[in-house]
Amino acid sequence: xxxxxxxxxxxxTARGGAFRPPAVGVExxxxxxxxxxxxxxxxxxxxxxxHVSACLANADLPVEEEQLAAALHARxxxxxxxxxNDALAVLxxxxxxxxxxxxxxxxxxxxxxxxxxxxTARFPAVGRLSGDWGGGWGLAEEALWHAARxxxxxxxxxxxxxTLPAHFGLASMxxxxxxxxxxxxxxxxxxxLTPVLFATAAGxxxxxxxxxxxxxxxxxxxxxxxxxxxxxxAERTPVLLGGSVLAAxxxxxxxxxxxxxxxxxxxxxxxxxxxxPVLGAVLLGLDRTGAAPEAHARARDHFAG
Length: 305
What we know:
Order of helices and strands: EEHHHEHEHEEEHHHHHEHHEHH
Largest sheet: 5 strands, mixed
Distance between the termini: 16 Å
CATH architecture of the largest domain: 2-Layer Sandwich
Low-confidence stretches: none
Strand order of the largest sheet: 7-6-5-8-9
Number of strands: 9
Shape: globular
Radius of gyration: 21 Å
């Protein structure tokens, strides 16, 4: 988080722990921010702020944004509070005005679009329940599924049956299945298998390549639909690619996304965003308070350093 003056000067920053309202509830999740907020306020020499611009993970539905905004407002974090999904932070960080589409592929996958007049396009993005496919966690799960079926001959052969267990120093998929099931390997470590999937795909494995290609297809489908909803499909429009999976610029994934966008949305201008999401939240806050362009530039310069 960051405390920012009206002129864009960043007065203080602080980092907190995981923000997980679905797991612990809204009130406890917001309370978990208190320590980081207190440190930032103390470093900035303030006790309150005019406006809170919060771009938060797990704020996937408008009702969740409203609940989180009410909880932050009740704790007197600011005179006014805006809560948005963190995908909007990626979008705003990558553009000079709030206009474009962002697809975020980190642990999960999400897409948002925005126009300067306030129109937005978004997806529920709560996992398979809302039709999502992919993201780092989903890619790891898909790789494990194919590797397990290859190992016992239910599925087509794939090098993933060797490379996935080898990552944990195990000799077989059976050993990896057992280790994950009995928590000898913590379930949270499954995300480590996503880079293994990409490396296996780069080595030419057909199954791994097909999984990577499907992720590209999903990214482009979301971006194209968002552009269409905002009447931007025929206008030159930035499409920002963010999150750990897309920011890694895996050649096969990156190239396929660009090829598919060129075919389905020729006016789209794809660009990878590596700026910290907090920059997007800051810029949205400065938009909300009517700050001068110089303030936006100052904030950008700070986080670029």
